[in-house]
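Try this one yourself first.
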């Protein structure tokens, strides 16, 4: 019996040692995992503190917004920006000015409506006069005679109208293709589409072609500003978000600016 125990003792010792080693390794691995998790949490806290990611009350959906921002930015960098650059390179400046004036004149119709809805009768009537003067004497809006006559150009939309009526902006929101917005402005966007008289242009192919030209022309007009943002902004998303929110606040409540 003793000889049998002596024979099995090495095996038993080995089993005990293996069990102890496994328990020790398990404990060590748990400790290591906990340390890694703690370090990761600390790192995220540091990033959040420095960049305000996930902690801005105006941007509670920042995770989604950044994904959508990157999607829009990729489309811009690979499609819209090259098209705008080519358009600016090959299109004479006076033609670009005429195209911008034409679509600007169309936009003044909706500007007038929103100014009147906001109770700004003077600005609304000024917009009406701009449309009348530019359409009549500016060859359908190709020439901006109204500005030369002292009729100031306004930029109003239904989101601003809702804001003037007391509707709060809600959280910041990045829309697919359309870019920066807020919850209020996103709700107002379909109304702005309906208020754009170009959306009723027929035939459809002419409307679609004009819409594409309008988009490229507008992007070409801000090419230099885009390059400046690329060079100056440490975080392009934060820069554009904060600039948008500040500009919208100034547009709706200019006296508080």
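Now uncover the answer:
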């Amino acid at each position: 019996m003793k000889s049998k125990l002596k024979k099995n003792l090495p095996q038993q010792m080995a089993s005990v040692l293996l069990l102890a080693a496994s328990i020790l390794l398990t404990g060590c691995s748990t400790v290591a995992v906990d340390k890694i998790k703690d370090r990761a949490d600390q790192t995220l806290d540091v990033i959040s503190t420095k960049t305000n990611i996930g902690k801005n009350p105006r941007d509670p959906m920042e995770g989604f917004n950044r994904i959508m921002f990157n999607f829009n930015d990729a489309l811009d960098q690979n499609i819209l920006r090259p098209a705008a650059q080519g358009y600016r390179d090959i299109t004479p400046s006076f033609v670009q000015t005429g195209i911008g004036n034409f679509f600007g004149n169309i936009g003044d119709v909706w500007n007038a409506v929103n100014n009147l809805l906001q109770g700004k009768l003077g600005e609304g009537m000024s917009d009406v006069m701009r449309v009348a003067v530019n359409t009549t004497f500016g060859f359908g809006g190709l020439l901006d005679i109204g500005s030369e006559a002292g009729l100031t150009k306004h930029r109003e939309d239904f989101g601003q109208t809702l804001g003037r009526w007391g509707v709060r902006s809600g959280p910041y929101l990045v829309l697919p293709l359309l870019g920066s917005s807020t919850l209020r402005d996103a709700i107002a966007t379909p109304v702005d589409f309906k208020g754009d008289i170009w959306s009723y242009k027929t035939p459809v192919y002419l409307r679609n072609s004009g819409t594409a030209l309008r988009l490229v022309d507008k992007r070409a007009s801000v090419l230099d500003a885009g390059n400046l943002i690329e060079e100056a902004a440490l975080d392009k998303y934060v820069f554009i978000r904060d600039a948008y929110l500040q500009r919208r606040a100034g547009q709706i409540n200019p006296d508080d600016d």
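Discussion: The chain is about 75% helix and 5% strand. The chain has two domains: 1-51, 62-256.
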